Amino acid sequence: NYRCRSAFKLLEIDDKYGILQPGDTVLECGAAPGSWTQVAVERTNANGKQERAPQGAVFSIDLLHFHAVPGATIFGGMDFTTSLAQKRLREAVQHRKVNCVLSDMAPNATGVRMLDQESITNLCYEVLRFALAMSAPQAHLVVKVWDNGDVPKLERDMLRFYEKVKRVKPRASRGDSAEHFLVARNFKGATDS
Ligand code: SAM
To answer: How far apart are CA 73 and CA 52, in angstroms?
Structure first.
């Protein structure tokens, strides 16, 4: 039982690209009310339910407070873009190398298309920067974007650090016409090449 329908977007992305494996460490931004967290916990075995598989770890953050998800470490009431929030996440993750970074973050829409698009792109760059600092080799990254003129540049910037970047529109996201996800796979390392 998922907390909201968004769960099916991540299930669809993971079924297609296999970005979440048992034993993985996952960082998740914009997690409330927690349905992606539920999916990430199941697929990484962060709750230890699959006895014979390695146990993963999931760290989830949101501006809003939300209910605990067994197996996940949750940071509610925190703005991911602040240095305090990022310090907390780094401390929680400790020595682990992150295998997958997920962001379903969306800014509060002002209704002014240009401003809203700029703020979601800024959120994506903030997540990309953090992912570069935290990720293990071959890690993956998923960010939500709204279709706009900045997306091709973001895609190109991601391609400098990941072997493959795909623009994905899950069936479950049909209702929201502008919404897409960039799925970046196989982190090459943070040194620009
Ligand atoms: N993936 C979630 C799920 O399946 O339950 C739904 C996420 S919802 C579409 C987007 C979330 O991004 C909102 O809960 C919002 O509070 C959060 N958000 C937006 N800006 C944020 C920021 N700067 N830091 C943390 N969370 C943020």
So the answer is: 22
CA distance linking residue 94 with residue 78, whole number of Å: 19
CATH number, domain 7-187: 3.40.50.150
pLDDT of residue 193: 56
pTM tops 0.90, yes or no: yes
How far is residue 32's CA from residue 77's CA, in Å, rounded to a whole number? 10
Kindly report the number of other CB atoms within 10 A of residue 163's CB atom: 11
Out of 105, 122, 123, mutate this one to test ligand 1's pocket (max ligand atoms within 8 Å of CB): namely 105
Domain ranges of the chain: 7-187
Sign of the CA dihedral with 169 first, then 172, 173, and 174 last: positive
